[in-house]
Amino acid sequence: MEIYLVFVDAIRNSNKFWAAIVEDGNLTVQWGRVGYQAQTKVHTLANHQRAIAKFHNLVAEKKGKGYRENQPEIDTSDVYEIERAIGLLNAIRSYVIHRNFDQHYIQLLNQYLKIVPTPLGMQIAPYTIYRTIADVDHQRELLNSLLTPVPQVAAVAVGHVPEAAEPKVVSLKTICKNFWRHL
């Protein structure tokens, strides 16, 4: 049993994650700022059931504080989240075009960063995250590439049915290097 949560509030300079995993009678928790070295604590409990109970209590506490469930990787089978992120980028794009960084822009940015946790440094400057439309378009292209089906190789033997392709999983750590090219 495991979970990955994020909390983003660009105005309050908050861009955090919290992750937990239960293995046997241990609950391992990691937390920190997205993109930075995580702190880790291992709770050694008497048995698996107690570890699960502690897990559920801590998750409820974090969700009560505004953390949202997420994942440290984007799985291409999760088309809904990818399309949602692209939709948010489309909305953000119009704000960048007009250089209108009002409260609605901040809300869109926070929603986007909850889907795509991104290392933004120790001081978030929400008005300079997107300097140009090209920055938004670059991210949109990368997300759209996750929706592009991988071409299947034609079967050599007649009547051979190729195995179903595994969904492509992209680590946010690897795409973030190119994703936020100006940061």
Can you describe this structure in just a few lines?
This protein is α+β, with helices and mostly antiparallel strands. The chain has helices at 48-64, 79-98, 103-115, 133-147, 172-179; strands at residues 2-9, 14-23, 26-33, 39-44, 68-70, 73-75, 169-171.
- Outline type: elongated
* Strand arrangement across the biggest beta sheet: 4-3-2-1-5
Major sheet summary line:
5 strands, antiparallel
Count of beta strands: 7
Distance between the termini: 34 Å
**In sequence order, what are the helices and strands, one letter per element?**
EEEEHEEHHHEH
Q: Residue share in helices? A: 25-40%
The number of helical elements comes to 5
Describe the fold and architecture.
- This protein has a five-stranded antiparallel sheet. Strands 6-7 form a two-stranded antiparallel ribbon.
- Helices cover 40% and strands 22% of the residues.
- It has helices at residues 48-64, 79-98, 103-115, 133-147, 172-179, and strands at residues 2-9, 14-23, 26-33, 39-44, 68-70, 73-75, 169-171.
- It starts with a strand and ends with a helix.
- α2 (79-98) runs antiparallel to α3 (103-115) and α2 (79-98) runs antiparallel to α4.
- By secondary structure, it is an alpha+beta fold.
